[in-house]
Amino acid sequence: MESTKKRRKKTKPPKTFNVYVVELDKEVLNSPKFVKANPDHEPDKACFYVGMTGLTPEERFEKHKAGHKANNYVRDHGRYLRKKMFQKFNPMTREEAEKKEKELADELRAKHHAVWQH
Question: H or E stretch including 75?
C-alpha cells in the first residue's frame, strides 16, 4: 500500500541576509571601550563596523544613522558603506551571513584595522 503522506522536499534556507561594512570616522577612537576592543589597531589604519542584516545594507545603514535599533558607533561615527568589501558576498542565508560577518571582521583586524562587530 502506498502511503498517503507526501514526501516533503527539503527546502534550502532563503538567501535573504546581507553583510555590510561601515567606515567609521577616527573620532570613534575617543571611546575607551572601542580602543580597548582593538589593541592591535595601527593609527594610520581605518576604523570599521561589520554587521549583518535582513535588510539591504543601505536600508540598515540609514536605520543606524536615524538611531533605530542602532549601534552607537555607527550612529555617531558612521561615514559610509564600504560596498566593495561586501557586495560580492550578498545575499546569503542567515547562517552564511553570521559566518561571513565574523570572517570579515577578523580579516580587517588581522590587517590592524579597528573593528566593532557583534
Answer: helix 72-77
Cβ atoms of 52 and 19 closer than 8 Å: yes
Cα–Cα distance, 102 to 97 (Å, whole number): 9
Residue 11 pLDDT grade (very low, low, confident, very high; cuts 50, 70, 90): confident
**φ/ψ (deg, to 5) at 42:** -100, 135
Give the DSSP letter of residue 38: -
Contacts 24+ apart (CB under 8 A), 29-38: 29/114, 31/73, 34/73, 34/114, 34/116, 35/114, 37/114, 37/116, 38/109, 38/114, 38/115
Q: Tell me, what's the pLDDT at 9? A: 72
Q: How far apart are CA 42 and CA 106, in angstroms?
A: 15
CA–CA distance, 116 with 57 (Å, rounded to integer): 16
pTM: 0.89
